[in-house]
Amino acid sequence: MGVCNKAGWQSVCETERLSSLREWLARKPRKAVLFDADDTIWLDERYFHELRSSVLALFPASQRAAVGERLDIEGRAAEAGEAGYAAAVRRCCARLSLGQNTRAAIDVLLAAFARHEIELLPESAITIARIAAASRAVLYTKGVRSEQLRKLELSRLFPSFEAIRIVTAKDLATLTTEVASMDCVPRETLVIGNSVKHDIIPAVQLSLRSIWLNHSENFRGRNAALPEGVVECTSWKMVADLLWFEHHASLCCASALFCLSGEILRTNRDGVGLKILGAQTWKLDLSLSGGLPVQSSGTKREGMKDLPLVGEVGAVLKYDLFNSPSVQWQLRLPLRYASGFHLSGLQSVGWISDPGVWVSGDVSLLGARWDWGASVNVNFQNERFNNFYYGIGAADATPTRRRYSASGGYSGADLRAGVVRRIGGIVATGFVGMSNISGATFSNSPLVQQTTNFYAGVALFWVFDKSKEVATVINRGDMQ
Description:
480 residues; alpha+beta; Rossmann fold; Outer membrane phospholipase (ompla), Chain C; 6-stranded parallel sheet; elongated
């Protein structure tokens, strides 16, 4: 008979809890997941520690212990948030005899503290977005509303949340009120947070499911005994491994737009990609593109063969030039080979490359948040490709359409910009663009009607169903 020691028994219990939580999240009806924010989604306490250390560094070593004790007393009595702690620091320093330079230095530190950036915990954003695709995602956090909204704005996670609840206290009474106001069923609701006292214990008392995120910088979240049966994760990767779903394809909108997301293959509204190489700043993707058939009748191609549907396949090397919470810049270096599709087989079309710079971000406009993007591309095509579209053979030459043979090389430039707005299950998009082929190697072809084209369009999509896991984009540079 085998013997199971205490550690082994705990491991068995943990495995059973994880399995139970996976099965629960996969079941219908749609679940609600409440996320804490400070030190759960992004790091927060470290900035308070850094301010305290920076202030103490202004004092002689012999005084630091006494000043630190005063700071801690004021800090414990401070109101919530950065402004509350900053006021506590000012009160402490007001009681000390400080020189003008020291006071000025403290003012600089407090100003920087009030507008500090945020650092998302690794993999928090992508995990939250994927959970939100299958569940009702609610940000349930404590603090000063203006401060929490500023940090949420910096996180760029607004679109992931169905609701934002910022409260002044996190306890059983508050959680009971919030769960009821959102029509959440307790046993169908999950809480993810870093604080045992403020996140986990109220959830357990209300019979909600819970995950304690006990990461390496959880300085203040280990503030009570963890209730029995609660799942503990030390990182968002562990949360992801726990809750990850099998990959599913799904029909995403009425215009037959399919989305598939996986570790390797993905498709979305921008194309199809195979993630071959992944690094912090470099990515190598396999992408597909193409062109629609062209009828010659009624154009300068009158009497020539219609052009078939063209498919392009190749690789694109992407380099992240700059990333911030509000904007991303990316360099893209693609190379594709094109083929025409006929009933009788494939027709070689040629090589194309359109390197460019892409910039994307989001903006508040008319009281709503919009995703936006813009790009500038320079096009290069080989001789075969240009002649496929612009060449004129002897059999197609006429008195008004001379024989023409194009060479390879520069083939024009494009400038595009667009916005996307998501309203529940509706996705509204708009775009404008300009294409110019002045100076292109084929610009003097008789088939060229004009060298500059302007275009614009709008589209409205209805997302009537989602799979348990849908394509998730955190870095908009990965969208194509």
